[in-house]
Amino acid sequence: MALVLMPGIAEAVEFGNPQLGLAYARVRCAGCHRVEVGGAISPLPVVPSFESIANTLGMTARALNVWIQTPHPTMPNLIIPTEERDNIISYIMSLPVKR
Ligand code: HEC
Question: What CATH number is attached to the domain comprising 82?
Answer without folding.
Answer: 1.10.760
